[in-house]
Structure formats: C-alpha cells, structure tokens
Amino acid sequence: MTPSPSETARHVLKQACSAVGLDSDGAEPLRLAENQIWRLPRQRVIVRIAREGQSAAAAREVRVARWLARENVPAVCLVDVEQPVEADGRPVTFWAELPSQQHGSVEDVAELLARLHSLTTPAIELGYLDPFVRVGERLHAATTIRDEDKQWLNALHSDLLAAYAERPAGLPDRAVHGDAWPGNIVRTAGGVLMMDLERFSVGPPEWDLVSTAVRAKSTGAVSAREYDRFCAVYGYDVTAWKGYPVLARARELRMVTYAAQHAARNAEWRSQAQYRIDCLRGRSGPRPWSWKGIL
Hints:
By secondary structure, this protein is of the alpha+beta class. The chain is 42% helix and 14% strand. The chain is built from nine helices and ten strands. The strands form three sheets. It has a five-stranded antiparallel β-sheet. Helix 4 packs parallel to helix 8 and helix 8 packs antiparallel against helix 9. The mean pLDDT is 93.
C-alpha cells in the first residue's frame, strides 16, 4: 500500500529529527505544502523541510542566520545542531520557536533594512539577487488565466529581464533580504526581527525598498503618510531613483504571478489573479489599485 502524504511527511520529519538528536513525537504540522513546517512543542523548535533541489538555498539560509547573529541583527535563530540535514533528498533546517508575533510596521521594516544595508557585505557565499526567481515557473503553472494574458505576461517578463540588466546605477550592492515586507519583519514582545531568510543575496538595496514603495504607489496597502515615515526612517526615497520603474514593475509582476499560480490550485484566487492582471495591463484604472492577499 502506498503511504499517504501525511505518513510520508512524518517519515521525513522523523528521519531528520533523529539525525540531529531531536524527538519528533507529538510534532504538529503548521504547513504541509511544497515546503513543510512542523512544530516540536515540547522542545519549542520549528522544523522546515524544503522541497527537493533546494539544498544550496537551505545551506545559504543557515549561513545567513549565523552571520546575522554575529552582527547582532535581530532575526530568527537556529537551533544549535549541525544543519541543514538531508532526509529523503529534502533539506531540513531547525529554528527556535518564536513567541507570539504580529506584522511589523513600515517603520520597523525601514529600521531593520537600514541596519542591514549598513553592514559590510559578508564573506560568505550568498549568490547575486535574481528579482525574477520562479516567475517563469509560476507563469507555466498558471493554467487558469487566459492565453492572451499569459503571452502578455511572458513578454513583460522578457522585457523586464533586459531592462534590469541595463538599469541605471544606484546604491552600492549589499546583502539584501530579498522579500522585505511586514510579514517577514515581525514584532514580538522582545522587539522586531527578521524572518524568512531564503531570499537573502547580494544585490541592489533598492530591491528591498521597492517592496514598500510598490505597496504605497501601486497597491495602496501603505498610506502616503506611512510611506513618508518609511523614507524618513531609512533616509532615502527609492521612487526618486531613475531605476525605480524597472524594479517596481518587476515586483508587480512577481505579485501577479504569485496570484496566478495560486489560482490554478485554489478557485478563490481566480478573480484576484485576473484583477491583478487587469491592473497591470491598464484595464482597471490608475494606481493605486486595491490588491488582496500577500503583498
């Protein structure tokens, strides 16, 4: 008899925990998707099981977490075990469970980004930023959107790849978070810290700043007053940079393809995916638009 997905997941978890001396009995699944997240309640440990082929990314995330700890940048903490480990071909990492948390404010995001971007680029292998990572894969998986829209999005992707390669000079390259929105820079009783380190790389700091700028200028998720505070705390307004339109368009494309991919698996996302496409194609009026879901 073929094991069920949940049985397979628990087998991988048990194998990984055993490799580092942790007990997986009583483990609670927090998310069982391409990437799995489990909680070990008795040990207050979070176990992240990445999909196959992500060993290099998992190892980079471990290097980043250790570097941030050395630099006293508040971030999620690794459990003190040798990691990542491999279980059935999947890389696994182990993290200290966080206390209760909520999304950070735009000022929290600006403060931590300013602190991060002030650091000398670390002498660890990070790789160079790819703003378009998984965009092509997401478009291929977007089976519920119209063919004409998919063709248009693929053409936009190609145009933006070329424009990004020729972008104007900006701030010096630094270590960047890669996905700096308030869901990844959270507030706990102990203060503000960074989460989700898998997109860390070396690249233009503007990419981290564009995330908040797009939420203000394109989607309306951040008010004009909040955005002014963001710029004041960080000390720079990325929208004044000549390369901003290219990076903003790249961020918008990522947000559209995220919704389009989810629409293929979840019918509740279909109207939102089409709405985002219509916004990007100029069918839904001028910015800011009103987008739902993860921004």
